[in-house]
Amino acid sequence: MKDKKRAMGRGLGAILSAESKGSINNATDEGAEKLVGNIMEVSLEDIYPNATQPRTYFDEKALADLAQSIKSLGVIQPITLRKDGEKFEIISGERRFRASKMAGLKSVPAYIRLVNDQELLEMALVENIQREDLDAIEVALTYQRLLEEIGLTQENLSQRVGKERSTITNSIRLLRLSPVVQDAIRSGEISAGHGRAIISLEEEALQDVLFKKIITQKLNVRQAEQEVQKLKKPHKKPQKIVTLPNYLKKAERNLSDILDVKVEIKSTAAGKKGKIVLDFKNEQELEQILAHIH
């Protein structure tokens, strides 16, 4: 397998050194800028859950599935930690933390928060978003952090990074893709445009169908979008054409002659039941039909 974890940062990720682990706790400490806004590898032994974590139940099967995904692909989205001396408290990502332990990992990629680091983090993230070597998932993660951790509105974020709000929204939507698809975007196997086509399908099963078709048939983005339309509107089974029995054909002609309008009889295959359709072009023809009925 390719080095999946290499995709987690492309130069942003770094092993947390023993020096920074012990000496950097505040945004004003020397070297703080190396931690804030970057992705670091942190030993699982140094991480502990947040005691005030509102989530108290973790589905074991879902954790096992996530652990299996992590074994295959690594941790796609870093967890967020707050530095507490030489240890780290989980701010978000406890499911990924637990699943990583189940998967046998020794460390996980993480964002590090320090005391009073709000302004420093915002500057680091805004600067980071301008990098040309970021993949689409890393860009989306950075947008998400600016919105959630810094508390920027989409309008403020749009102004800060010089991007349309729709661009930011479409970028963040990529984080709703499955880990397998996100990893394919990171590795360059498919593009962000492919990802946007996939996420436009609401059902995960259909997303998986389209993803596999993009890979196996090497579809470009335009072709993937066309497949989306096909999947959203599956072909209806053609209706079976029923040939009218002779006695119904005769009845159809007789009624047409009597009413002086086009008459169509639609019948079941057995010819035992059906319906009669009277075709009139104007009010006069309708009155003509009603006159015969009365």
UniProtKB/TrEMBL annotation:
The answer to whether the entry has keyword DNA-binding is yes
**Superkingdom of the source?**
Bacteria
Q: Which UniProt keywords apply?
A: Chromosome partition, DNA-binding
Among Gene3D superfamilies, the record links this protein to:
1.10.10.2830, 3.90.1530.30
Membrane spanning residue stretches = none
Kindly state a single biological-process term from the GO annotations of this entry. chromosome segregation
Q: Which cellular component, as a GO term, is one annotated location?
A: chromosome
As one GO molecular function, the record gives: DNA binding
Read off the CDD domains from this record.
SPO0J_N
Cite the ParB-like N-terminal domain residue spans from the record. Answer: 40-129
InterPro entries tied to this protein:
Chromosome_partition/occlusion, HTH_ParB/Spo0J, ParB/RepB/Spo0J, ParB/Sulfiredoxin_sf, ParB_dimer_C, ParB_N
Q: Which family does the similarity line name?
A: Belongs to the ParB family.
Q: What is this protein called?
A: Chromosome partitioning protein, ParB family
Species assigned in the record: Halpernia humi
